[in-house]
Specification:
The complex is a heterodimer of chains A (314) and B (355). Chain A is an alpha+beta fold. Chain A has 12 helices and 5 strands. The chains are: A alpha+beta (314), B mainly beta (355). Chain A: Keywords: Nucleus, Transcription, Transcription regulation.
Chain lengths: 314, 355
């Protein structure tokens, strides 16, 4: 192969390239140079006529052997000086020879032609440049696995810290809310919500409790209409209402006198243990007979509507 | 996730105008390619940035090629974890088992039944024969990804791998153990290539080409350094017909840098005719001074180097031949078993080009 390349170099000179230094050298070598030119022409013709790659390779070997034999007759310095005289004007014939030697006629490659675009500088890379190549030398996706692994660890740690904080806050919530006795977090939240609503309601009751105190003052007048014999009872009743207020519970008692003997009581208070017992004991102490009781539980409170009759003294 | 693109008009036009280019379309984007030395088969690896990738085996007829004869063999395709960064068949044509090696998170050896391609309907899929990684020795949960590898043709029991962890590892694949491991560079190693007599070279993100000799593991020679500071070198091709020559590619560069072992440090030539960044380079398998390069400009260029080092013209070397694929060419293979064929990969297509 190398010998074939060497012989191809002589083609530009034999084609009559106007290269003055080569002429004297050619004359000086005489017959030996004539043999070289003949061999070169033969190589050129055979290369053009060759039909397949395999034949090309064999031809190259044969020419190499012939050329090696011939080269021994010529001084090395002379050969190199001939090579150095080769110039750019012969590049087209050089490529033409190359086409026949190397590339088969059925090639899907075409000869390269210089265009104006080739003179422009190629812009620097950017993200899209060498896309798959950069990813391949970056580890081809396997590297992502490593990053994903470490991020999973970090995620677990941060989740753990978050839940520890939440658990602490749930414990604090349990200690603040007296009604919480269950363990699970959902119950803690539900009972906290109920407790907050109850506190809001207490605030409302206390504010509305101030308004109720005024109707309470009117009760003695109503009772006087009934009769003087019950003055003591009226006082007791009034005391009972005040007692409830002093306890700080949001309670509300309304007394409506229907006629001489009958009156209605409306009671709203927070449910406590033995509340009903205490309530009816208070009614008895007022010498009232209970005619009917209507009970309800508005918003978790105890609501009673009681119809009562004054006990006759006869 | 990447989806298969519809065939571009330019590619279809190029194919219609070129009866000697044969195209096979696959379901996914293709990166790795490998010719088999002992059967008319091409291996093509998909490139999905995912755990699930696939290697397809394509058969072709090198003597009487037709569009129908260049096709995938579904029975011989197999799943591959992560996209393979390189594929290579056992270099000995006469080797009894047809071994195919792949690199990704580890080096894997697959047994491919290529003896009777006509009976592929009943043939078993290639089976995984061995996985070679440093997981146990490094006591780490993860193995650093492999960027490339090269199979030693003179001693096929040796495979050299290049890794992101700055090391090159020489494996004895018959025993499945590490023969030697070298901290080859200061940064990730991007490619490795064998020379002769136990010599190999590697390129790195540190911008250097280094040459190692297994007979003298303590030393290495810095053969070339990229001119721009810290410009990584991405790929390396060593001329197996004339071991004096190497070619390398730089990141974000359209140049192909050609080096001569006899003149370290200064490139023999810098080939500057790609109109976009270069992606792949391969030497002609049976010629000393011919090589082919492919790039983002969609062109595959065949170059011929001048016979004497000092004969490079001032305006640079022009390529001899050109092929236009119409889309970015990601991979290029020129195998000794089929010197008249070049294979390229672009988008989800593999093409066979007659030289």
């Amino acid at each position: 192969m190398k010998k074939l390349r060497l012989s191809i170099h002589y083609e530009p000179i034999s084609s009559g390239t106007p290269s003055s230094p080569s002429s004297p050298l050619t004359k000086e070598t005489g017959d030996a140079n004539t043999v070289l030119i003949d061999d070169l022409f033969l190589a050129h013709s055979d290369a053009i006529l060759a039909g397949g790659d395999q034949e090309d390779h064999q031809l190259g070997n044969d020419l190499g052997q012939q050329q090696a034999a011939t080269a021994m007759e010529i001084d090395d310095d002379m050969i190199y000086s001939l090579i150095r005289n080769w110039d750019n004007d012969s590049s087209s014939s050089w490529i033409e020879l190359l086409d026949h030697v190397v590339v088969s006629p059925a090639s899907c490659f075409v000869p390269w032609k210089r265009t104006e675009l080739d003179k422009q500088a190629v812009a620097g890379g950017g993200e899209a440049a060498q896309r798959l190549l950069k990813k391949a030398v970056g580890g081809g996706g396997a590297w992502m696995n490593r990053a994903a692994g470490s991020s999973i660890k970090n995620h677990v740690m941060s989740e753990r810290r978050r839940w520890e904080k939440l658990n602490e806050m749930f414990l604090t919530l349990k200690s603040l809310v007296p009604s919480i006795d269950k363990v699970d977090k959902a119950s803690s939240l539900a009972e906290t919500i109920a407790y907050l609503k109850e506190l809001e309601r207490r605030v409302q009751e206390l504010e509305s409790g101030k308004k109720v105190s005024r109707p309470a003052k009117r009760k003695p007048c109503s009772e006087r209409i009934i009769g003087g014999g019950d003055a003591g009872a009226v006082k007791e009743h009034h005391h009972w209402v005040l007692s409830e207020s002093q306890e700080g519970t949001p309670s509300n008692v309304r007394v409506i006198v229907m006629d001489k003997d009958e009156l209605h009581l409306e009671v709203h208070c927070r449910w406590k243990e033995l509340m009903m017992t205490r309530l009816f004991d208070a009614i008895k102490s007022l010498r009232l007979d209970v005619l009917s009781v209507q009970a309800s539980a508005p918003n978790g409170l105890l609501g009673l509507k009681i119809r009562a009759k004054v006990v006759s003294l006869t | 996730m990447e989806q298969p693109k519809p065939p571009s008009v330019a590619a279809s036009a190029a194919e219609a105008q070129n009866p000697n280019a044969f195209t096979c379309e696959l379901p996914h984007s293709i990166y790795a390619l490998a010719f088999s030395p002992s059967a008319p088969v091409l291996a093509a690896g998909s490139f999905l940035e995912d755990l699930h990738n696939r290697v397809s085996l394509l058969s072709f007829d090198p003597v009487h090629p037709t569009a129908a004869s260049f096709r995938a063999l579904p029975a011989l395709s197999f799943d591959h974890p992560y996209p393979p960064t390189k594929l290579q068949f056992h270099p000995r044509a006469a080797s009894a088992p047809h071994l195919l090696a792949s690199s990704s998170d580890a080096l894997r050896l697959w047994l491919a039944p290529l003896d009777d391609l006509a009976a592929t309907a009943t043939a078993a899929a290639p089976e995984l024969r061995s996985v070679l990684d440093n997981r146990k020795t490094s006591a780490s949960e993860f193995c650093a990804p492999l960027t490339s590898f090269d199979w030693n043709e003179a001693e096929p029991r040796r495979i050299g791998t290049a890794s992101i962890d700055t090391t090159c590892t020489i494996w004895d694949i018959e025993r499945g153990v590490v023969e030697t491991q070298l901290i080859a560079h200061d940064k990730a190693v991007h490619d490795i290539a064998w020379g002769e007599n136990g010599i190999f070279a590697s390129v790195s993100a540190d911008g250097s080409v280094r040459v190692f000799d297994l007979r003298d593991k303590e030393h290495s020679t810095i053969f070339y350094e990229s001119p721009r500071p810290d410009t990584p070198l991405l790929r390396l091709a060593w001329n197996r017909y004339d071991f004096h020559y190497m070619a390398t590619l730089l990141m974000d560069s359209s140049a192909v840098v050609v080096l001569d072992m006899r003149a370290p440090g200064v490139p023999v030539a810098e080939l500057h005719r790609h109109r976009a960044c270069a992606n792949a380079v391969a030497w002609a398998p049976q010629a000393t001074r011919h090589l082919c390069s492919a790039g983002d400009d969609g062109q595959a260029l065949i170059w011929e180097l001048p016979a004497t080092p000092g004969a490079v013209p001032a305006e640079g070397i022009d390529p001899v031949m050109v092929y236009d694929a119409g889309a970015e060419i990601n991979q290029l293979q020129w195998a000794a078993a089929y010197p008249e064929w070049i294979s390229i990969a672009f988008e989800n297509k593999v093409q066979l080009l007659r030289v």
